[in-house]
Amino acid sequence: MVTLEDFNSDDPIAWCPGCGNFSILKALKQALVDIQQQPHELVIVSGIGQAPKTPHYLRCNCFNGLHGRTLPVATGIKLANHKLTVLAQGGDGDGYGEGGNHFLHAMRRNINITYLVHNNQVYGLTKGQASPTSDYGFVTKTTPRGAISPACNPLLLAIASDCSFVARGFAGEIDHLAGLINEGIRHKGFALIDILQPCVSFNRINTFKWYSERVYKIDADSKYNTADRLNAFQKAQEWGDKIPIGVIYQNQRPALEEQIPAIVDQPLVAQRTDPEVFTELLETFK
Amino acid sequence: MDISIRIGGEAGQGIQSVSSIIAKTFVRHDYYVFINQDFASRIRGGHNFDQIRISDTPVRAVNDRVHILIALDKETTRQDIDCLADNGILLFDGDSIDFTSENPKHISIPFAGIASDVGKSKIMTNSVATGAAMALLDFDLDPVLDCLQEQFQQKGSETIEKNQKSTTAGYDYVKRNLKAKPPFRVPAVTSVRQKMLLTGSQAMALGAMASGLKFYSGYPMSPATTIMEFVSSQADRYNIVLEQAEDEIAAINLVIGANFAGARAMTATSGGGFCLMVEALSLAGMTETPAVIVVAQRPGPATGLPTRTEQADFNFVMHAGHGDFPRAILAPGQPEQALYLMAKAFNLADRYQTPVIVLSDQHFNDAYFTVDELNFRDITIDRGHILTAQELPSPHEYKRYAPSESGISPRILPGHTKALLYVDSDEHTEEGHITESATVRNQMTRKRMQKLEGLRREIGTPEIYPAGKSELVLLGWGSTHGVIKEAVEALNHNGMAAQMIHYSELFPFNPRHVAAAELRKAKIVAVENNHTGQFADFFSKATGLSVDQRILKYDGRPFTSREIVDQIKDTK
After folding, report:
1. Which of A125, B276, B347, B390 could form a disulfide with B248 if both were Cys (CB 3.0 to 4.6 A apart)?
2. What's the pTM?
3. Which one of A53, A76, A84 has the shortest CB-CB distance to B254?
4. Based on the domain organization, do B357 and B272 belong to the same domain?
5. B27-46: per-residue pLDDT in tens?
């Protein structure tokens, strides 16, 4: 029986007091308990930023790599040992800026990992510059006249890439978020969970209050069909006065690792090589 | 016997098909064959050639004199005619290309006409040329027809038959019309089918797979792509996962992920792609994750000459990556060595938990070598110290970066039932958690760099040929092995006592591997395919020996032994 205590880490937390990351960490732990995830069978890969510190603050296997490069590392781990549960974790700059190309291709591959993007619409660790998801007109040290490029919409990108699980959560709705993470991990394929998160130090516009007044749960609408891609495109464009949270789109196409003959029987890490077997190949060169 | 045949033409005319049929025929009859591929960066058109060298003794370099030149286009008659030996013969199709000659050694054969008549298509021109060349060599036709049968097996009996008929017609045409005796007879011997013909890329891929390669990720880039293609062709048979990455940054991070999880993994690229990988090279160094990276050099800077050769990335791979971290650099000069060095690369990467770079180049990757034997029995797989369930029997506060004298800390793989694993690209504690501590920083830097001393003890000695002392030493590394050896043999043959010192394991360098006191008296000549003599500078600094002459070539083409010998004679 896995309990919350099994995920408690001694590593001292380095986030600002009041940071949305605390709530996301709580939701993540709750989800892991709910699905009875063994810590030793879990790997969390993270990039660089405030969000990527998360795996240090819970007991699991952790690979904290480079800025923007979470998804290739996570994909490599999953392909080497697909018996592991692999999560990737980063912020909006890490995932949608530095790692944008990897984001597109991880979705296309449909590798069975769950990607949590802590999206606070601003750069935190580098102290307050504009991010790819900063709203048009957002004033920062690098956009003193306000951002003149519109925000990228990761959900629209994901649906367009036929990402097989596209969801948005909110750090202020911990139980709801825990449910989304739970569903994302159980989904067989690439699961994107974009998590709206206030940054108490550098984003004075998109605050806890700002998000709270706007978010609504699409799960409450029993008629919403997550398999309807065209409708999902429409839903993903809602922003401003009303912001939907929940599973926006989902399909059941096969995961990458299910389609590779080499790992049908057992994961790569369990396989051994006998060098002498390759002698048989030499005939082809004669 | 030492005969060279050059087939020149446009991309798409089937040059490689001619060279592979001729080469295979002679390799099967126990001859030594070496093929150099010279091609432009395009799919159709342009001017390309393959040069096949056939000998009854081992040959591993290009000859600058050609005995049979087959011109499939006009450009060959213009660009390549000067390389004909005095007794060399040009075969061309005077009906198809605008070229005439009074020289009796320039023989016009209606390649295209015969192809259309007999093979029912001009596409068969190359097969007619194959037959014509074999007739000039006065060699049996049957084994050639067998090779054609195999080559076109998958295309069906009609294609096989057309190619065989066209080759036979080309052969018969020369036999019928050649007035003199065939000038370059290759003595007929019984087919033994013992020798092998393979490229440097194939040897590297074989070495990697036999060493337990389980995961390959790469982004196509000449001249490294052929490694990926060969692994791909065998991936299902030997249970290897091959993932073509969206870019080189992804490729190396995929490889780091797979290695972290415990699968042997590699990538291969060229200089430009390696530029993109460099941040992650440093990540492998910091997180102490094994990674094997093949850098197949081509001329830079930037896109450079994409399909040609150079050795100008030695400095780059030596210094690539921010911060101090240990690495090893290996550079095979022969296919047998490539097999062994790929295995060594994986073993060093696993045992020292750090990146290992295998540095090759277009000449090595694309050239075909004749190999007497490749021995997989000598390959050992050493994964380094990975703690098993038996070694950690009870729940354990495992420390990934525990201090040790060698700097190496035993790994566990994620999924271990008794311990968890924290790995970080930030400076980290023994447990793998992020730290800002000055004391820990110092300890961790020293721990990582301590591994360099262990690696230095693993690095093999250079090859010294012939053994003994010499007053003239030719210093080289990597792909120039064959040509320097040939130059040394030629110099000795001409009465100049010369010796080769060839490095195939470059870094960490061990200056004690050469007898400095003896070498101080010798003239040292560096031979390198780059503009500055990058390895010569490094060697000089590491050994305190001065390099007296540098023979450098950076036009994108490989050396010939004559170029080396002539430059040594000129400065005598």
Report:
1. B276
2. 0.97
3. A76
4. yes
5. 999 999 999 999 888 888 88
Side chain identity at residue A261, one-letter code: P
Strands B32-38 and B45-55: antiparallel
Across the range B459-472, mean pLDDT stands at 95
A118 in Cβ contact with A20 (< 8 Å): yes
For the CA atoms of B355, B360, B361, B362, the dihedral, rounded to the nearest 10 degrees, stands at -110
Residues of the domain holding B478: 463-570
pLDDT (average), residues B282-309 = 98
Same domain, B237 and B104: no
DSSP codes of every residue in B173-228 = HHHHH--SPPTT-----------EEEEHHHHHHHHHHHTT--EEEE---TTTHHHH
Q: Does the distance separating the beta carbons of B262 and A269 come in below 8 Å?
A: yes
Residue holding tokens 């995920």?
A7
For chain A, domains (ranges, CATH) are 4-285 (3.40.50.970)
Q: How many domains does chain B have?
A: 3
Q: Are residues B285 and B214 in the same domain?
A: yes
Instruction: Looking at the complex, report in whole angstroms how far the Cα of residue A85 sits from the nearest Cα belonging to chain B.
Output: 10
Mean pLDDT of B378-391: 94
- Picking from A11, A45, A81, the nearest residue to B262 by CB comes out as A81
Where does a domain end: B363, B378, B393? B378
Look-up of token digits 């591959």: A109
CA B543 to CA B527: how far, in whole Å?
17
Q: Higher confidence at residue B191 or residue B204?
A: B204
Dist. CA B65–CA A278, nearest whole Å: 37
What are the tokens at A120?
């606070």
Those residues with Cβ within 8 angstroms of residue B243's Cβ, 6 or more apart along the chain or in another chain: A75, A79, A109, B215, B216, B217, B254
Burial annotation B346-381 (CB, 10 A radius, 16+ → b, else e): bbbbbbbbbbbbbbbbbbbbbbbbbbeebebeebeb
ipTM > 0.90?
yes
Q: Which amino acid is at B204?
A: M
DSSP β-bridge partners for residue B447: none
Average of pLDDT values for B409-435? 96
Chain A, nearest residue to B284 by Cα: A65
pLDDT tens by residue, A116-131: 999 999 999 999 999 9
Between A and B, how many CB-CB pairs are < 8 A? 204
**Are B239 and B356 in the same domain?**
yes
User: pLDDT at position B45, please?
Assistant: 84
**Residue position matching structure tokens 């159980």:** A186
H or E element at residue B474? strand B472-477
Nearby residues of A60 by Cβ (< 8 Å), 6 or more positions away: A7, A39, A42, A43, A44, B420
Chain A interface test: which of B27, B339, B423, B426 (most A C-beta within 10 Å): B423
Q: Is B46 left (phi over 0), alpha (psi -120 to 50) or beta?
A: left
Mean pLDDT of A249-258: 98
Q: Does residue B452 lie within any of the structural domains?
A: no
B137 lies in some domain: yes
Whether pLDDT at B572 is above 70? no
The answer to whether residues B477 and B503 touch, using CB atoms and an 8 Å cutoff, is yes
Q: Are residues B148 and B204 in the same domain?
A: no
Strands B523-528 and B472-477: parallel
Question: Is B402 within the bounds of a domain?
Answer: no
Q: Which residue in the block uniquely carries the two structure tokens 């050994």?
A: B543
Statement to judge: residues B104 and B251 lie in one domain? no
Give me the residues paired with residue A168 across strands.
A194, A246
More confident residue, A105 or B396: A105
Identity of residue A71: L
Looking at the fold, whether B170 and B269 belong to one and the same domain comes out as: no
Cβ <8 Å between A64 and B256:
no
Tell me what the pLDDT averaged over chain B comes to. 96
